[in-house]
């Protein structure tokens, strides 16, 4: 690893110069003050490590210290430095992503890294949440793609999930070039795994009666967008419980990670305050329920709604 230089903090770290590193300039003041209040510089360095390299807070500190020694500015505050690593799905290679910004408050790194357009920093590999959610769901399915779930009000249902083959990388690029869109990173990641999917479709005996969540293929995205002319400011990416699942193009232009909206037919879309990755995670955790509507129901009004449990009080 080479010698360990000292930083102003007195911590030591391995010399990054001994590694073949690529230095990427990334987002510069494209976010609101909540995330990056007028940073003077925002850069990232990706450093390949040996596969399955040990990882702990000590190593985090060493790489941060080394990064500051190599590229740092004495005006940068330590609270504005963080380090992240991912496992590249294709090779299993572990990489370290170092982010340094001029910021004197704790950086909300998880939301930043997982938030829609913010992931254009090219950290490599699929998001761990998206990958783990899909893996966990598939493990629950039998050989036919079915599983039993406990639904609301104690009901037990059998549901079906199916996943299309992945989209070719060049086909996705051609699609985006044709439409003039840049899809959010987590949407691209999903399509690179599965060019469309249907999850939590209800089974009545052996008959699939539909429902649940559908994530569109590229062709379905194109056809649905052409059909929903009154929603031209949105990109349809799915359908859930008779609602359109939409990407707000305005949110993408603002680099807003909460780009996901929902709309019943042609009504005004409502924000879900989420992206596709988090929506899928919560949809699976809630066992295919319309979890986004739960805050609308209280103990006072739930039992008066259609389908509420009858009580004696």
UniProtKB/TrEMBL annotation:
Domain of life: Bacteria
Family matches, as InterPro entries: Knr4/Smi1-like_dom (IPR018958), Knr4/Smi1-like_sf (IPR037883)
Gene3D superfamilies according to UniProt: SMI1/KNR4-like (3.40.1580.10)
Knr4/Smi1-like domain ranges (all copies): 166-261
Full protein name: SMI1/KNR4 family protein
Organism: Rossellomorea marisflavi
Taxonomic path: Bacteria, Bacillati, Bacillota, Bacilli, Bacillales
């Amino acid at each position: 690893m080479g010698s360990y230089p000292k930083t102003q903090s007195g911590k030591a770290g391995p010399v990054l110069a001994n590694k073949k590193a690529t230095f990427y300039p990334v987002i510069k003041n494209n976010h609101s003050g909540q995330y990056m209040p007028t940073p003077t510089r925002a850069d990232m360095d990706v450093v390949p490590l040996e596969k399955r390299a040990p990882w702990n807070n000590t190593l985090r500190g060493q790489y941060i210290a080394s990064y500051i020694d190599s590229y740092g500015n004495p005006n940068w505050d330590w609270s504005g430095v963080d380090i992240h690593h991912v496992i590249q799905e294709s090779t299993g290679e572990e990489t370290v992503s170092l982010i340094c910004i001029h910021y004197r408050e704790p950086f909300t790194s998880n939301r930043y890294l997982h938030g829609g357009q913010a992931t254009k920093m090219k950290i490599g590999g699929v998001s761990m949440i998206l990958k783990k959610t899909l893996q966990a769901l598939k493990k629950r399915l039998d050989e036919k793609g079915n599983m039993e779930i406990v639904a609301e009000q104690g009901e037990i249902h059998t549901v079906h999930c199916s996943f299309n083959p992945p989209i070719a990388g060049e086909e996705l690029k051609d699609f985006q070039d044709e439409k003039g869109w840049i899809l959010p990173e987590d949407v691209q990641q999903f399509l690179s795994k599965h060019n469309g999917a249907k999850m939590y479709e209800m089974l009545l005996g052996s008959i699939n009666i539909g429902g649940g969540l559908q994530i569109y293929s590229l062709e379905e995205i194109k056809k649905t967008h052409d059909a929903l002319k009154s929603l031209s400011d949105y990109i349809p990416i799915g359908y859930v419980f008779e609602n359109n699942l939409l990407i707000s193009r305005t949110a993408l232009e603002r680099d807003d990670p909460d780009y996901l909206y929902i709309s019943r037919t042609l009504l005004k879309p409502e924000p879900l305050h989420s992206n596709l990755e988090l929506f899928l995670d919560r949809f699976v955790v809630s066992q295919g329920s319309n979890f986004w509507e739960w805050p609308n129901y209280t103990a006072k009004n739930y039992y008066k709604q259609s389908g509420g449990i009858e009580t004696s009080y």
